[in-house]
């Protein structure tokens, strides 16, 4: 019984140092994003754009993430298409933040906005169609730490669903960018 008590007491003494590991408080990231958007006729359209994200690290392995994106495509007389998303949700770090390479995964949900603008053509006036719907996205990526403050998002791959004008659309997104770390816990 004394051995068991000794092991438990030793374990309790180790808990505060383990909890005091230096974890960055907030990560901000931004960069380039390529979205593959599936049209209602199942054709995929590549759209160039940007992303911006913020993550507040609650624990070494869990954060609260917010992400905004914008993607654009000029289709000439078939219109200029734009898709914007604003999503929030948990972000998981299975190996924590204490490595040169940080692996993460997330599940995000929020609002997506679709806009297509048709220019005036053949005597017809310009026209704009838009829709805003619930959207979700799941994926992950890898970041490389370059210094105490800066890192590089080597890649982020995401799969998401939107429901513009009724039917569901599949979205795939690849992002690369820079990460700024500040604060410490």
Explain the overall architecture.
It is built from 1 helix and 8 strands, in the order αββββββββ. It is mainly beta. It has one domain: Beta Barrel (Porin). Strands 1-2-3-4-5-6-7-8 form an 8-stranded antiparallel beta barrel. Strand 4 and strand 5 (101-118) form a beta hairpin. Residues 1-20 have low confidence and may be disordered.
SSE blueprint:
Elements: H1 2-19, E1 24-38, E2 44-57, E3 62-74, E4 80-92, E5 101-118, E6 127-145, E7 150-162, E8 169-184
Antiparallel strand pairs: 1-2, 1-8, 2-3, 3-4, 4-5, 5-6, 6-7, 7-8
What is the CATH first-level class name?
Answer: Mainly Beta
CATH fold group:
Porin
The major β-sheet equals: 8 strands, antiparallel, barrel
Helices and strands, in order, run as HEEEEEEEE
Strand order of the largest sheet: 1-2-3-4-5-6-7-8
Short description:
Helix content is 10%, strand content 65%. The protein is mainly beta.
């Amino acid at each position: 019984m004394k051995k068991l008590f000794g092991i438990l007491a030793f374990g309790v003494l180790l808990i505060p140092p383990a909890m005091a590991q230096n974890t960055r408080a907030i990560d901000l990231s931004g960069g380039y994003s390529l979205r593959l958007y599936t049209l209602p006729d199942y054709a995929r359209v590549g759209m160039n754009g940007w992303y911006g994200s913020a993550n507040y690290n609650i624990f070494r392995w869990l954060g609260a993430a917010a992400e905004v994106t914008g993607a654009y495509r000029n289709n000439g007389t078939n219109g200029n298409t734009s898709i914007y998303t604003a999503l929030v949700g948990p972000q998981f770090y299975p190996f924590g933040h204490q490595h040169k390479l940080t692996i993460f995964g997330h599940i995000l949900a929020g609002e997506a906005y679709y806009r297509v603008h048709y220019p005036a053509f053949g005597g017809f006036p310009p026209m704009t169609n838009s829709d805003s719907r619930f959207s979700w996205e799941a994926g992950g990526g890898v970041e490389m730490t370059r210094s105490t403050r800066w890192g590089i998002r080597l890649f982020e791959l995401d799969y998401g669903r939107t429901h513009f004008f009724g039917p569901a659309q599949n979205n795939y997104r690849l992002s690369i960018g820079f990460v700024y770390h500040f604060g410490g816990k």
